[in-house]
What does this fold into?
Amino acid sequence: MSLITADTTFQLAGALLVLATFGFWAETKQLGRKVSGPLIILFLGLVLSNINLIPHSAPMYDTVSGLLVPLAIPMLLFRADLQMVLREIGPMFKAFVASAIVIAVSIIILCLLFDFGPFEAKVAGALAGSYIGGSLNFVATAQAVELTDPNHYVAALTADTIGAVFFLALLMMLPALSWARKAMPSKYISANGDNLGATITQSEKAEAAPFDLLGLGASITISMIICAVGGLITGFFNADNYFILVITVLALAVANLAKPMVKRFNSEFEVGTFFMYIFFATIGASANLTTIAGIAMPYVVLICAAVLLFILLILVVGKLLKLDLAELLIAANACILGPATAAAMAAGQKWNDLVTPGMLAGILGYSFATFIGVAVTKFLI
It folds into this structure.
C-alpha cells in the first residue's frame, strides 16, 4: 500500500498539483526546456508510484482523465484563428503541409513493413498526432483511439521525446549539407552554408494582457459547454469514441466564428496546459517502471526510424516543390516540435520574418493533428 492512499483525496490532489507545478517551474530552466515539462512530470509520477508514495490507481485519476482533459482541449484551441493563420503564414504553408504529410506517411510505411507490437496502430496514431501538432494532440489522439494502457502510454511518450531530440539534431545538420543547399536554394542561407540573417523587420511582440478573472471564467464556462454539447452529440449517435474529435471541431468553430467573445478570454491557454500537466502526473503514476523498460524500445525504434525517413523524404519533396531550405527547416520544426521551438529556432538564426509564420504553422498543426493521428490508427488497424 502506498503512503498516500487512493481514498485520501486532498493529500493525493496535493501531490498531483505539486508535480504539475514543478513541471511548469522546470520549463523555466534550460535543462527543463530541453527535456520538456510533460516528460519530467511523467517520470516523477512514475517514480513516486513505484516507490509507493502515491497509488498506481485512484478514482481521482479517472476524474482528471474524464473531466480536466476534455475541459483543457477547447481552452488550448481557442487561440486557433485559422483565417488569421492562413492569411499570415505565407509561403511556409506549403512547407508545413508537406512536413505533416511526410511524417504521417513515414510512420505508416514503417508500421506496414515492420511489427511494433499489439499496440502498434494506437501508438503510431498518437505519435503522428504529436509530431504534427504537440502534446495536446498526443493526449487527444490517445483518448480517441483508446490507448489507455498506462505502460504503453508512458513508453510512447518516452519514445516521442527521444525522437524529438534525434530530429532536432538531424534538422540542425541540414544547412551544412551542400546537396541540401543546392536542392533548395534559400535567401537566408548562402550557397556555401553561411547564415545570411534576414533583416526584414518584424513587429514587436504585444505585451501580455493583464489577468482578468472574468475572461478566465468565461473561457472555462464555454469550454464546459462545448464538452456538454459534445457529449450530447456523441451520445445521440452512440459514438463515444469520437467525443474528443467532436469537441475539437466545436472548439475550432467557437475560435473562428465567435472571435469577439474569444478575444475577451484570458489565461485560458495557460490554465488548459496546467490541466494537461495534472493529467501527465496521473499517467506517470499509473505506469509500472519494470514493464515500461521492456516495451519502450520498439516505439523508440519506430519514431527514430520515422524521423530519419522523414528527413530523407522531405528533402526530395522540398526539391520537387522548390521550397526555400530555411522555410522548410522552420516549418518542419513547427510540425515535429511545435510553435515555440520553431519561433526560437528562427529567432536564434536571425531569420526574423520567419518567427511569426513558424508560430502560426505550429498553431495550424494543433488544429488538425488529432484528426490525422486518428486516421493513421484507423488505417493501420
Summary: Residues 9-202+210-380 form one domain. The CA atoms of residues 103 and 309 lie 8 Å apart.
